[in-house]
């Protein structure tokens, strides 16, 4: 049996190999099963697909282009570097791809409010946008540190009409925002819809978000064939929860000639407590209702994590990424904060592309390897978001 058969993953219980599932109370399992049934009922219907595709085309601006970074390629002196330009999507990142799908599903199910967490604010902005579009209330929970750091996105969320809930507990970042939003969701799961912002959480969310994000990989694969007559040699993306990466990787999983590389946040170094390299340093356990690799203490509690990129500082990771690591289909590496900043500035000043700090992790890894490769080789990077939200923070950090 082909272990990469995408139609077989997850299984009927929501597991990708040993990872995923529903580690939740029975009453919440009923709600999740209802969401799963509703999603499976509508996902392949002509009406749902036509509406989603129409929004992707006329609202989001899909397909996003693949761009050859000639000056960066010349600077690094090796493989040709391509970017999948998810930064050009409406709202500035890949998040809108699944937010539209989740908002349409919530409306179909008759929910009264959509809840979510956000770290860098891209998921929050995208979901607030989607909820405004379909006419449903939206509430976003965000850590106080991230609110200060990602102020431009906070302003956008407020303009779009969502209720923003500051989270002051714990590390005041993404993990704590997830906890806070989930507690609010549990107050009325029958009428609220928790639109999880990545390929994490209990089944069916890792499957649903993956499915909505797979448009990135499908487009990129065909674009490479159309424009270059071949597939890339390496396909890479940053990995926090893992939605942008799994969306891109899905298009290439069955192409054995394509090397897939996920780039995790190394923070201040893997030899310190200040990183979020879950797949590199984590152990199997459960968090937020599912089994995955995670960073935890001796009691099994999630550890505080750190990344310069607010969207990557999560102590768990999507279950499909865990499975792909175990079967050896995807390699996972890490990039530290300083390397990320250097890549952010290099791409900005070489190609005029200001990347999200999250995406800059993948750029940083490519800056390490491209020069060691032959010129006929091709590397495809998911430029998962633009760096408007990070510009002031980076300028302050680097004293620009």
User: What structural class should be given to the helix and strand makeup?
Assistant: alpha/beta
Specify Rg, calculated over alpha carbons: 19 Å
CATH topology of the largest domain: Rossmann fold
How many helix segments? Answer: 15
Q: Show unreliable segments.
A: 1-7
Bin the helical content.
40-55%
Number of strands: 14
The 3D shape can be described as globular
Taken as a percent bin, the fraction of beta residues is 15-25%
Count of the separate structural domains: 2
Helix/strand order, N-terminal first = EEHHEHEHEHEHHEHEHEHEHEEHEHHEH
- Can you summarize the main beta sheet? 6 strands, mixed
The CATH architecture designation of the largest domain is: 3-Layer(aba) Sandwich
Query: Which strand order spans the largest sheet, edge to edge or round the barrel?
Result: 3-4-14-9-10-13
Mean pLDDT, nearest integer?
95
| Overall CATH class of the largest domain | Alpha Beta
The N- and C-terminal alpha carbons lie at a distance of 55 Å
């Amino acid at each position: 049996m082909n272990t990469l058969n995408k139609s077989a993953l997850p299984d009927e219980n929501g597991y990708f190999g040993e990872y995923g599932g529903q580690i939740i109370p029975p009453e919440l399992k009923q709600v999740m099963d209802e969401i799963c049934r509703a999603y499976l009922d509508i996902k392949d219907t002509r009406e749902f697909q036509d509406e989603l595709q129409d929004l992707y085309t006329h609202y989001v601006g899909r397909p996003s282009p693949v761009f050859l970074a000639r000056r960066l390629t010349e600077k690094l002196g090796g493989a040709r570097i391509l970017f999948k330009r998810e930064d050009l999507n409406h709202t500035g990142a890949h998040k809108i791809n699944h937010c539209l799908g989740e908002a349409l599903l919530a409306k179909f199910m008759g929910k009264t409010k959509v809840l979510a967490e956000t770290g860098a604010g891209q998921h929050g902005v995208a979901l607030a946008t989607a909820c405004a579009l379909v006419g449903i209330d939206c509430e976003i929970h965000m850590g106080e540190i991230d609110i200060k750091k990602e102020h431009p996105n906070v302003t956008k969320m407020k303009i779009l009409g969502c209720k923003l809930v500051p989270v002051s507990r714990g590390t005041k970042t993404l993990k704590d925002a997830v906890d806070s939003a989930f507690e609010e969701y549990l107050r009325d799961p029958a009428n609220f819809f928790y639109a999880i912002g990545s390929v994490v959480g209990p089944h069916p969310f890792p499957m649903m978000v993956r499915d909505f994000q797979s448009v990135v990989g499908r487009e990129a694969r065909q674009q490479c064939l159309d424009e270059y007559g071949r597939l890339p040699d390496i396909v890479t993306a940053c990995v926090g929860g893992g939605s942008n990466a799994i969306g891109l990787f899905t298009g290439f999983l069955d192409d054995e000639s394509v090397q897939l590389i996920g780039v995790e946040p190394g923070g201040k170094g893997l030899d310190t407590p200040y990183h979020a390299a879950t797949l590199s340093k984590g152990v199997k356990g459960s968090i937020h209702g599912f089994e995955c690799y995670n960073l935890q203490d001796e009691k099994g509690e999630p550890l505080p994590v750190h990344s310069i990129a607010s969207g990557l500082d999560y102590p768990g990771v999507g279950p499909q990424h865990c499975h792909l690591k175990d079967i050896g289909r995807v390699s996972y590496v890490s990039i530290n904060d300083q390397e990320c900043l250097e890549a952010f500035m290099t791409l900005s000043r070489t190609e005029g592309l200001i990347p999200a700090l999250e995406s800059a992790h993948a750029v940083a890894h490519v800056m390490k390897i491209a020069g060691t490769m032959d010129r006929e080789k091709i590397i495809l990077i998911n430029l998962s978001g633009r760096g408007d939200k990070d510009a002031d923070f980076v300028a302050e950090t680097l004293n620009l």
